[in-house]
User: What shape does this take?
Amino acid sequence: MSKPRLQIKDLQVAYGQSTILKGIDLSVPANELVCLMGRNGVGKTTTLKTILGLLSQTAGSIDMDGECIDSLATAERVRGGIAYVPQGRDIFPNLTVWENLQVSIVVKGKAARQHLDRVFDLFPVLKEMLKRKGGVLSGGQQQQLAIGRALLLDPKLLILDEPTEGIQPSIIDQIEDTLLALKAEKRMSILLVEQYVDFAKSVGDHFCIMEKGSVVKTGTIGELDEGTVAEFLTV
Assistant: This one.
């Protein structure tokens, strides 16, 4: 692996008396894509939310480009270069596509406007639907909007939580093409939570598998073999 963009060491998170994350170690190299995998309920989304500062860690450290971000608020982490597309997308359904995109423009100002053409090249449907409310878009179109809104922030680290869930195959193909294009640009690292093994293999550089709040296996994506899938990922 190259130098880490994100480095997590011994990360622990608890809800009340229940320990959810039991000492996570996770590294995301600069300009590469890591697939965070595992069955439902193993702690993947909890890990992502803790990276964002949406949940508090009880132990461990989170470093971004060698700097500890443990004490930073979520807004500071976003301004520092982390963009998050949560499971379920979380667009604003009563705002238009353009108004949804303007949320990022408000945060980043002129810098975000410079990336509009790039987003429209990746997701042409957004440019065609600027005046439509987010709530009337299909699930796939909403996912494109959520990713596009995140890309306007020009993040150093893009975090995606199951972007292919419930999405039609044609849009999944477009998301795959987008992730491959972003990797080719070598401008950002990507941490992807993904259930579909074939999709993970097509876009990933590395994998990290979780089980019961712990990391149980890591490797290059080429090492994600049938035995590993059967042991840790098959439902």
